[in-house]
Amino acid sequence: MSGERSDIQGMDRRSFLRYTAAAGAGLIFSPLIRAQEREQSALEDINVALLGSGSQGQVLLNSCLKIPGLNFQAVCDIWQDWNQKRAARLLQKYGHDVTRYIDYQEMLASEPDLDAVIIATPDFWHEEHAVACLEAGLSVYCEKEMSNTLDGARNIMLAQRRTGTILQIGHQRRSNPRYLHVYNRLIQDAQILGTITTVNGQWNRAVQPDNSWPDGAAIDPAILRRFGYENMHQFRNWRWYRGLGGGPIVDLGSHQIDIYNWFLDSPPSSVTANGGTDYYDPATHEWYDTVMALYTYNTEYGTVRAFYQTITTNSNQGYYEKFLGDEGSVVISESASRGSVYREPGAPQWDKWVKLGYINAPEEDEQNQQQESGAVLDVRETLAPPAFELPVELNDPYHMPHLKNFFNTIRGKDTLNCPADIGYETAVTVLRVNEAVEAGRTLPFRPDEFEVPGAISGITSGETES
């Protein structure tokens, strides 16, 4: 045993954390990792870099500051006098002594003690950044979309399999306790919706001006060109440009379409889509500002039609996902204002699920109001059935549970909720929508499109609810 202990003690910090995480994920079954060493690793601070400190990077950073055991050592962003400075000042306020970088390669070469990196750069940079960080031995949290191209997403996935390093894709609903409760308890255990037949969802945003920048704060044109931007407008509004982002269907829709695949336990078999740049200037909004898509899913329970829309000219009803079955429906959103379950009139009573704590019974005044009205619910009625509320709340920032899941996996205490294979499946599902709009016809999916040849699933998604 002394030889085994010396093998572990000879590992560098990064290798030891990776080895412990693999053991915690069930990839290594070995007496080499003793309880004492596991405990030591679990308590150890994780050295982190933030790569991309724009609006999304700031959101992730704010969540990380609420997670104990993280030590930020570096911030990398090409907008040196704005994004980079703002993030560094915030981290320094919380006691993190960070070094600032413009070039990620310089950061990787200069920071040998890093354990993990959070990538929140524009989508077209994800492939290069994620692959380089994985090959450097870093655990990677990569914002969605995994890439703006399927080739890019495929290369990230292959790099993860090649290196065996931890990679979490930022579909944060996968770690949201409310979504986990709906999937694990209501859909899987109780099958409270019966047979799901239809799904619909949306993310609507009001008209917004393009992102601008303060006078005198523009990035040097040479730096912009070096990092793939023609001008400052393109840098600030990259999501609208082909070759850089994917438009609203990728920026917004990806989060929700990922839930379609998850809750239905299946990728789609086809997609039809219609959309266009109907409102904004096509010269600066190259991607569609309005998209409506219809997926067909061939599940083990039958065919499911799933509609999705994203518009950027009106914010009515915001964003939500709705799953409708022959015995009930659930409406859920990241927003705490939506999270209700509705029983169909002919479905069995849900008293059992109320007693088990799966759902909360409707308020008495709501039930009494319906009884006093004398209304009878059937297909001709407009009166909504009483709402059974979800008993689970999320009081933390939306991204915090997903980041905690990532860091706990590094420590060997958890398994990833959105590893590379899930992120890739979603990327295929979402990126094909823009193709379907352009093609003007229904595009079929082959089952093998959702898999990368030679990629064997490693650290997989868990079912924890907290």
Summing up helix and strand content along with how strands pair, one would put the structural category as alpha/beta
For the biggest sheet, the summary is: 9 strands, mixed
DSSP strand (E) fraction?
15-25%
Main sheet strand line-up? 14-13-12-11-7-10-9-8-15
Count of beta strands: 15
Nearest-angstrom radius of gyration? 23 Å
Task: Say what oligomer this is.
Answer: single chain
Distance between the termini: 36 Å
Provide the residue-averaged pLDDT: 89
Q: Can you count the helices? A: 17
What form results from the Cα inertia axes? globular
Characterise this structure:
The chain has helices at residues 2-9, 13-24, 35-43, 55-64, 80-93, 104-110, 123-135, 150-163, 177-189, 221-226, 232-236, 248-251, 253-264, 351-355, 364-373, 400-410, 420-439, and strands at residues 46-51, 70-76, 99-101, 116-119, 139-142, 167-169, 196-204, 270-276, 290-299, 302-311, 319-325, 328-332, 339-343, 387-389, 443-444. The chain is an alpha/beta fold and 466 residues long. A 9-stranded mixed beta sheet has the order 14-13-12-11-7-10-9-8-15. Strands 3-2-1-4-5-6 form a 6-stranded parallel beta sheet, with helices on both faces. The longest helix has 20 residues, at 420-439.
Layout: helices, strands, pairs:
Layout (H helix, E strand, L loop, with lengths): L1 H8 L3 H12 L10 H9 L2 E6 L3 H10 L5 E7 L3 H14 L5 E3 L2 H7 L5 E4 L3 H13 L3 E4 L7 H14 L3 E3 L7 H13 L6 E9 L16 H6 L5 H5 L11 H4 L1 H12 L5 E7 L13 E10 L2 E10 L7 E7 L2 E5 L6 E5 L7 H5 L8 H10 L13 E3 L10 H11 L9 H20 L3 E2 L22
Parallel strand pairs: 1-2, 1-4, 2-3, 4-5, 5-6, 7-10
Antiparallel strand pairs: 7-11, 8-9, 8-15, 9-10, 11-12, 12-13, 13-14
Helix pairs in contact: 7-8, 8-17, 13-17
